[in-house]
Amino acid sequence: MKAIGLLGGTFDPIHYGHLRIALEVCQALDLASVRFIPCAHPPHREPANASFMQRVKMLELAIETEPTFDIDDREQNRPGPSYTFDTMVEIRAELGKNVSLCLIVGSDAFAEFDTWHRWSEILDLVNIIIVHRPGGDLLEQDYMEKLLKRHVTYACSDLNTHACGKIFSLNVTSLDISATLIRSLISHRDTARYLLPDSVLETILEQKLYSE
Ligand code: ATP
Question: How many angstroms does the Cα of residue 9 sit away from the middle of ligand 1?
Answer without folding.
Answer: 7
